[in-house]
Amino acid sequence: MLKLSKLVVTAAFMLPPSLSTANAVDLSHSSKFTIAYLGVNIGVMKHQVNLNGDSYRLSGSAKANSVASIISDAKASFSSAGAIVGSRLIPAQHNLKYKSGKKSGRLKMGYSPNGVRSIEAKPKIKYKSGTVPLEKAHLRNVLDPVSSLLFPVRAEDVGNGRRVCNRIVPIFDGRSRINLVFSFKTASTARVEGFNGKTFTCSVRYQPVSGIRPHKKNIKFMKANRDMQVTLAQIGDSNIYTLFGFRVRTSKGMASGSAYEFFSR
């Protein structure tokens, strides 16, 4: 079965950064998601957002439930912090810890205003023969996966699904540099505990850049994959959207997540 920690990272990859100026706000947001694989509920993910003026902090965790833990007792925790400056999200730090069975690891990244400044990983990141080299230019003006869970739009674009979705997102996850291409798909309404309102679903295409081996089957599969999407919802009455749900077809089957709590204060 696909490891829960991989699902968390996948979910985090599938969200875009800011493309327009955000208003300074003070609010907190919390959400909880069920995570499913092959139609079976395998765990829960929690997500917390704190906004203070033009700074942000996101944190969360994911854990396999009793059904999935029979196969793999997976869990992960993650956090990121940074600033919203003009039309950009500028990460300052990113942390990820995970454990799956006997395997565990951690990743810590620090940032300058222009991009990734430092990377600390355990186990140490090693690249095999045939990997597309990661260049310094690939680390500039990128988002970490967790910061990508948060993005603002202009006040006049709140409620405009095409403005929310249509963008190309540069992501660096500590090993690989990719672009994700988002396109508006549908608008809908949803109601869960703490939320009753409009959501936008964006289709997603995967474009690897470096730090990957292009001949690998999983890379070829993801490049050709047309069955990926994220659903986004507004945080309170702000001009900021965040994750409400996702679907990702993997080579083994469909992985998905959906919010069952979505509170903003």
Task: Describe the fold and architecture.
With 265 residues, the protein is mainly beta. It has one domain. Helix content is 9%, strand content 57%. It contains three helices and 14 strands. Strands 1, 2, 3, 4, 5, 6, 7, 8, 9, 10, 11, 12, 13 and 14 form a 14-stranded antiparallel β-sheet that branches. The radius of gyration is 17 Å and the shape is globular. The N terminus is likely disordered.
Question: Brief description of this entry?
Answer:
This protein has helices at residues 4-13, 161-165, 217-224; strands at 25-37, 40-53, 55-64, 74-85, 88-100, 103-112, 115-122, 150-152, 167-172, 177-192, 195-210, 228-234, 240-250, 253-264. With 265 residues, the protein is mainly β. Strands 1, 2, 3, 4, 5, 6, 7, 8, 9, 10, 11, 12, 13 and 14 form a 14-stranded antiparallel β-sheet that branches.
Number of helices: 3
SS-derived structural category: mainly beta
Tally of DSSP β-strands: 14
Question: What's the rounded overall pLDDT mean?
Answer: 87
Proportion of helical residues? under 10%
Q: How would the global form be characterised?
A: globular
User: Taking Cα atoms only, what radius of gyration do you get, to the nearest Å?
Assistant: 17 Å
Biggest sheet overview: 14 strands, antiparallel
Distance N to C terminus: 37 Å
**N-to-C SSE series?**
HEEEEEEEEHEEEHEEE
- Please, how many domains? 1
Percentage of residues in strands? over 45%
Q: Which oligomeric state applies?
A: single chain
Which residues sit in consecutive blocks of at least 5 with pLDDT less than 50? 1-22
